[in-house]
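Let us walk through a complete example step by step. Step one is to write down the protein sequence. Step two is to encode the small molecule, flavin-adenine dinucleotide, as a SMILES string so that its atoms and bonds are unambiguous. Step three, shown after the inputs, is the structure prediction itself.
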Amino acid sequence: MTEDRPIVVLGAGINGAAIARELALSGASVVVVDTADIASGSTAWSTRLIHGGLRYLEYGEFALVRESLAERDRLVRLAGHLVRPLSFCLPIERRLGGLRAAAARFVGFESLARRWASRTGRGSIAVSIGLTLYDLLASGAGWPRHHMLSSRAADLPAIDTGRFPFVATYADAQLLWPERFTVELLVDARSAAAAAGVPFAVHTRARARVQPDGAIVVESIVDRAPIGTLRPAAIVNATGAWADRTLAGFCDTPGADAHQRLIGGTKGSHLVIRSAALRRALHERGVYAEAGDGRPVFVLPFGPELVLVGTTDIPFSGDPASARADDAEIDYLLAAAARLFPGAAPTRDDVQQHYCGVRPLPSTSRAGTPASITRRHMLVRDPQARLPTWSVVGGKLTTCRSLAESAALQILPAIGRTVRGSSRDRPLPGSFAVPVAAESAGQPSGCASHAATMQDVVTTTTTAALGAGFGEADAARAAASLVALFGSRAPDVFAARADAAPPRLITGTSLPLAAVGFCVREEWAATVEDLVERRLMLAFDPLLSAAAIRDVAGELARLGRLPAADVVAAAEACILTLKNRYDRRFHPDTEWG
Ligand SMILES: Cc1cc2nc3c(=O)[nH]c(=O)nc-3n(C[C@H](O)[C@H](O)[C@H](O)COP(=O)(O)OP(=O)(O)OC[C@H]3O[C@@H](n4cnc5c(N)ncnc54)[C@H](O)[C@@H]3O)c2cc1C
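Step three: the predicted structure of the complex.
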C-alpha cells in the first residue's frame, strides 16, 4: 500500500514548496525537510522578477518564454498581493546593431554571436523584433504592448539621453518577497492536506538520512534529536544548487557509479542601494539594460525607497551557502548603474547591503557564456536510488507553479497514484482573489474572482489593530505594512489569543510585535533570523536597528521559543549574520551594535 506513504520533498525553496503544494492538492501526504529555513537558498538571492525572459528569445527558447509569460499572468491574478506588474524601460544606443549576433545565437553559434556582438548593444530594430515576439507570446489581458520612444519622452527614467537616444517600454512583474511567496505556498499546501485529511509536515533545520532498509530518518540539525522515521513512497530532491551534494549524501547506493552531475551553477550578486536620487531617477519603472560588457543588468525600484541592481553571472562550484558578492562584482554593478544614470550614479556608500546566490542551472559541457545556459527546468529520475527519487534541475521563480504541475504529473502516476487536483486557478492564501466553487464556475478547479480590494483588507486590519489596543496612527501604519506582507491574511495577526503580544510596534518599524507570534504559529518561523530575514523582511528595512532585532528576540522569548537568558546573544548572532552575509550597513539615525 503506497497510498498512505508520504512523499518526502527535500528543500523548502520556491520549487520544493510549489511541488509540496501540488502533491497535497492531489491528496498526497507530504513531508518537507530543509537543512536550513524556508526560502533561505537561491529563492532569496534572486532578482525577484516574474518575467518571460526577453533575452531567452535570442536562444530560441520560445516554449520557455511562452510558459513564463503565461505564469506571469497567472501569478499576478492569483498572488496579486505579492506579484505586481512593473513597467520596464530598455535603453538603446542606436538603430542598427545586434541583428547578426542575435541570428547567430538563435542558431546556436554562441562564439560567433560574441564575436559579432556590437559594443553599443542591440539596436532599436533588433529590440523591436524581440519585443514584438514577446508581445505575441504573452497571454492574459491587460498587459500593455511595447513602445519605441525617444529617451527624452515624459515620465521615463532619467537615463543618459546622450548615450541612449531611444527607449523601448514593456511590462513584466516583480515579486518583491519570494521568501513570503514560498511560505504561502507551504501554508496553502498545509490547508490542501487538511482538506484531504492527510498528514503534512515541514521540518526546517533538519536532515533526512536514508537507512539500509529504505526507511528515512529525519533528525534535527540543531541538536541531532530524532524527529521521526518514515517509509516514503517517493523522494523529490528540490535542493536547487545543492542537488548534487544532496544526492551524493542521501541516495547513494553502495557500489553504484557516481551520480551524473546535474547542476552547473553560476553565482549572481545584487546591490540594495539607498539613494533618493537614483530612486527618483527610476520614475517607478524598472530598467533592463546591457552593462558595458554586454551582460544584462537590471535597475529596479525595491520597496518604497530602495533600488535593486543586479546581477552578475559567474561559474561557481563551491558550497552555494558560501557565495558572496566580491569587490569586483560590487564595482561592476555600480559602474553599470552609473553608465545608465550618470546624474544619479550610486557610490559604495549608497550600498545598504548586497546579496549573492547560485543559479541551479543544468550542468553542460557546451561552450558558451553562462548567460547562454538554458533557464528551462526538468525533473530527472535517479536510476540508482533505492526509493523512487526525482531531482529538480534548473527553473526560475516564475515557473515554480508550472514546474510543480509537471512534477505531479510525472511522479504520482509513476508511484501508482492519480493527479486529482491542480494549482492552475488556485489563489495563494493571502491573495485578494478567492476561488470560485468549481460547480458555480463551471471550471475543473474553480477560477479566481476578486472578493475584496486591498483597501478593504487595510480597513479590516486597521479595525483589528484598534481592537487589539493600538492608537489610531500606529493602527494605520501597522495595517499598511501587514497587508504588504501578508495580503488578506493580515487581520489574522490580531486574532484574539491568551498569549497576545502587547499592542506596540517593533522599535523604529511599522510592524506590530504580534506579527512575530503569527509567523511562529502559522509559518514555521523558529529563530530571530527566520523572522528578520524571511518572514517580516526587516533585513531590508532601511530603519532596521539593533533595538528592533532585540524586540523580535524578546518576543520569541515571551512566547517560550527562546530562553530569556539567550535574548541578547540571539539578537547579536542575527546582527552578525546580517553583517557577514549582506555586509548590511545601518542608517545613521538608527541605534546599532
Ligand atoms: C542571482 C539570481 C537571480 C535570479 N533571478 C531570477 C528572477 O528574477 N526571476 C526568476 O524567475 N528566477 C530567478 N532566479 C532563479 C530562481 O531564483 C531559482 O531558480 C529558484 O529560486 C530555485 O528555487 P529552488 O527551490 O529550486 O532552490 P532554492 O531556493 O535554492 O532552495 C533549495 C533549498 O534546499 C535546501 N537544502 C540544501 N541541501 C539540502 C538537503 N540536503 N536536504 C534538505 N534541504 C536542503 C536549502 O537550504 C534551500 O532552502 C535567479 C537566481 C539567482 C541565483
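Step four is interpretation. Confidence is low (pLDDT under 50) at residues 436-451.
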